[in-house]
Amino acid sequence: MRPFSGLLLLAWPVRPKGWIDSLDTVPTAPLYVACSSGYYGYDCGGICRCSPADDCLDGLTGDGTCICPPGPADRCSKTSVPSYVYTPVIHGQAGGAGCRRHGVYDEVAACTPTSHKHEDTAWFPLSFQPASLLQYTTLDSCTRRGQRQVVDSFISLAIPTPLQERLAVAAFSASVARLLLGNGIDEQALLHHEHFARVFSGSALLEGTLPIAYNYGGHQFGSWSGQLGDGRVISLGDIQVYPSAERWEVSLKGAGKTPYSRAGDGRAVLRSSIREFLASEAMSGLGIPTARSLSVVTSNDTVHRDMFYNGNVIGESAAVTARVAKAGAWMRIGTLELPAKRGDLSALREITNAAMDMLYPYLSTIVVSGHQERPSKYAAFLYEVAWKTAELLSSWMVVGFIHGVLNTDNMSLAGVTIDYAAFAFMEYYDPSFVPNTTDDEGRYAYIEQPKVARWNLERLASALKAVGVTEEEKEIMLQTYDEAYEALFYKKMARKLGLVVDDLHVHCSISDRSCDRAGTSDKALRGVVDQYLSLLQRGHVDFTRSFYTLLKGLTCSPEPHVSPREIINGMKEISDSNYLHAWEDLEPFWSEWLVDYERLLSGSEEGYCSARCIQRLRQMQSSNPTIVLRNYLAHEAIEAAKQGDFSQTQTLLEALENPYNQDHNHGPYVAPMREARILCPQLSARTVP
Question: How far is CA 465 from the centre of its chain?
Fold first, then answer.
């Protein structure tokens, strides 16, 4: 008799359709509890053969995996039968082949044939297709889930580890649900489906799902860290959205261990999950390119974290965030760096070509005019990433967003914001502000972000050198980035100050490799912007609220008119009380600046009229948010969620989705910053997610 202890049958998943040939040996498997030492598998019939003692390190914990101990034998053993398909599979979802009744299915997902799917309790409104990158590269041939170096693939199989305790939906974005569902299905049908929490926590898989984790490397804090990869993120695959036919990839953060988990447990906690959920949706509301978040599912499972790296380990509720981004957006600078560092030219070409095709397919149709030589396709790709990065960084800077961990493994090749961890929105204007307390040297301070992004782009150019990008092309790329960032930043700041009304047009052309600065070379305009930021810094004025304080002091009669006393008093009210003594010296500088500012407002156009002035003020309103995700707002929502009250998270989400709504200027989200900082001083610290 095969040795086992406490075998518990919960479900009998079958091999999903779409499983690739290398997984033909995967048996059907129920969820089990544990096996005796040296054995593993759904019936405890697998024998670990990758260590002399045949030790079964993970099988004893009941996850069905044979893991070799560290050492020369730490490799995928083909003598071990992988039996990791233990997560229940839900049948009869949209697009599926219908229900296969095997008795035990009814314990998990009772269902009827798909011809009656609208009456079927197991019918699910979404279905997943294998991730788009699998069209360009192959799956890791080794299926062992233990931590290891993966040298032959950018993708590894990664089965989610189910949460064991009671599940609860802590946060849900209806706008993201509408994005994924397309036309014809109410997002509430998705939220209230009986299996929603299970699917989007990784506690159940839809039939046909191929869960994977991505392999990439990266420079962290300026040093090469080798292979990193998705240590606790598992992609469920793509959803093709109709009628646009766009593909959006859904991944679960905190869904369990992967081959890239290193020393981690593969889990995330409710605290950090709500922060990431709110941050991604806040950035979307601001109009900044970002990954999105569909939901946060929590449970009573306990995860232990040393929150402030001070030796005080506490237990926190586990949670899983369902993150959504356009297919290819999870490809990072570090994705290309890894094969380049390993000297694998074939893999580098493969993944770079995939990135180009998925993210910038139009590059293949570019016709370069003029007398300049046509850049190589890889140089064109490099220029495009540089432009997207400049656009992204300028958007961060004008809303006071600090990413906190801008490593090359956290920078998307698509130019979207990903991997929210030690982020913050600046309160009092301080260019040197660092939200990550582990960043002792201030490498990722607010003011350093454009420089760090440039440094990261240099690392990308270095990786592409192996496929033909020249030193000259790298220098052109860096010049493109510098010019684009500067032009975009000042143009966006000018819009926030009401100094320009026309649409933002700044374009870097591959043909002439130059930037049309759209008039932003005006020294007077730039001088006003720079002096304004200097005054904010000297007075420690609230960055976000300063623009509305300025707006309240403007009138049209018919040309713009500035009320200096009202503006100066307003700035004092939203400044740090510890610096109020400096205002006596600052007031003359503010008065002088307001004179220059009014001159620019009035002299920027000919034939001024009241309607044009009102248009200018309305543009200021549409360019300046009344609410951003301040730390104290996130803290209040998190503390309520810890007590089981998720309503504050949803209410805050609704406000963040509409950040330019004027009602926020008078609502509950405009608390005095000095009181909020006293209440939550620790929230600027880097905490363990």
Answer: 28
> Would you call the peptide bond into 243 cis, given omega within 30 degrees of 0 as the criterion?
yes
Question: Does the structure show a pLDDT above 80 at 466?
Answer: yes
What CA–CA distance (Å, rounded) separates 597 from 620? 14
**Neighbouring-strand partners of residue 542:** 428
Task: Give the chain's mean pLDDT.
Answer: 78
212-214 and 39-40 beta bridge pairing = unpaired
Closest CA to 376 of 225, 217, 510, 286: 510
| Pick from 675, 663, 682: nearest CA to 573 | 675
Question: Is the pLDDT confidence value at 96 over 60?
Answer: no
Q: What is the pLDDT of residues 114-156, one digit of tens each?
A: 222 222 335 688 889 999 999 999 998 877 667 889 998 999 9
Using one digit for the tens of pLDDT, what is the confidence trace for 667-678?
A: 667 655 544 444
Active site residue 63: no
Which residues have C-beta within 8 Å of that of residue 565, sequence separation ≥ 6? none
Q: How many CB atoms lie within 10 A of CB 533?
A: 17
Active-site residue, selected from the candidate residues 58, 238, 409, 419:
409
Distance CA 510, CA 516 (A): 12
Q: Which of 524, 585, 591 is nearest to 553 (CA)?
A: 591
Dihedrals φ, ψ of 219, to 5°?
-90, 125
**Whether the Cβ atoms of residue 139 and residue 22 lie closer than 8 Å to each other:** yes
pLDDT digits (tens, 9 = 90+) for 477-496: 999 999 999 999 999 999 99
**Residue in this structure with the two tokens 């707006």, named with its chain if needed:** 551
With 0-12 / 13-18 / 19 or more C-beta atoms within 10 angstroms meaning exposed / middle / buried, residue 399 is buried
Buried b vs exposed e over 658-678: b needs ≥16 C-beta within 10 Å?
A: ebebeebeeeebeeebbebbe
* DSSP H helix total and E strand total for the chain: 18, 20
Give residue 669's pLDDT. 74
For residue 671, the 8-state DSSP code is -
Q: Go through 111-140 and write b for each residue having 16 or more CB atoms within 10 A of its CB, e for each that does not.
A: bbebeebeebebbbbbbbbbbbbbebbebb
Helix (H) or strand (E) holding 609: none
Task: Tell me the pTM.
Answer: 0.82
155-157/268-269 β-pairing? unpaired
Half-sphere exposure of 179 (CA within 13 A, CB side): 21
Cα gap 640→543, rounded to integer Å: 27
